Amino acid sequence: MNPYFSWDYLYNLGWAHYTLENYVKAAEFLQKALERNENARPARLLLAASYVGLNRIDDAEWEIEEVLSQNPMMSLTFLIREIPFANEDKMNIYVTHLRQAGLPE
């Protein structure tokens, strides 16, 4: 109801659609989140994973390049420790998508 909501509201909607494997809707919400905050690294990572789910590998790779330009130390090892997934299968899909997008180990 708040017309001035922050990027993380859209990011959370993107997560919800991503975990349901609705990558089209996830990408839509994540793109809108990045319009509100282009430095939102979690949204950019999830958008990269969503693009892999949509077989848009070039777009996914570009998103990872943007993440690495902000934080060259970002890696799958770091994310695996930080990702709050209760469902290990969903976590594995996310990690696999990010690996395919080019995020380093």
Overview of this protein structure:
It is a single chain. The chain is mainly α and 105 residues long. 71% of the residues lie in helices and 0% in strands. It contains 6 helices and no strands. Helix 1 packs antiparallel against helix 2, helix 2 (23-36) runs antiparallel to helix 3 (41-53) and helix 3 packs antiparallel against helix 4. The longest helix is centred in the N-terminal third of the chain and has 14 residues, at 23-36. The chain is globular and about 40 Å long.
How far is the first residue's CA from the last residue's CA?
A: 40 Å
* Low-pLDDT stretches: none
How many strands, which pairing sense, and closed or not: the largest β-sheet?
A: none
Mean pLDDT: 93
How many helical elements?
Answer: 6
Quickly give the structural class: mainly alpha
**Proportion of residues in β-strands:** under 5%
Kindly state the number of beta strands.
Answer: 0
Q: Topology as H/E string?
A: HHHHHH
Characterize the overall form: globular
The percent range for helix content is: over 70%
Secondary-structure blueprint:
Blueprint: H1 7-19, H2 23-36, H3 41-53, H4 57-70, H5 76-82, H6 88-101
Helix pairs in contact: 1-2, 1-3, 2-3, 3-4, 3-6
Structure keywords:
mainly alpha, 71% helix
Brief synopsis:
With 105 residues, the protein is mostly helical.
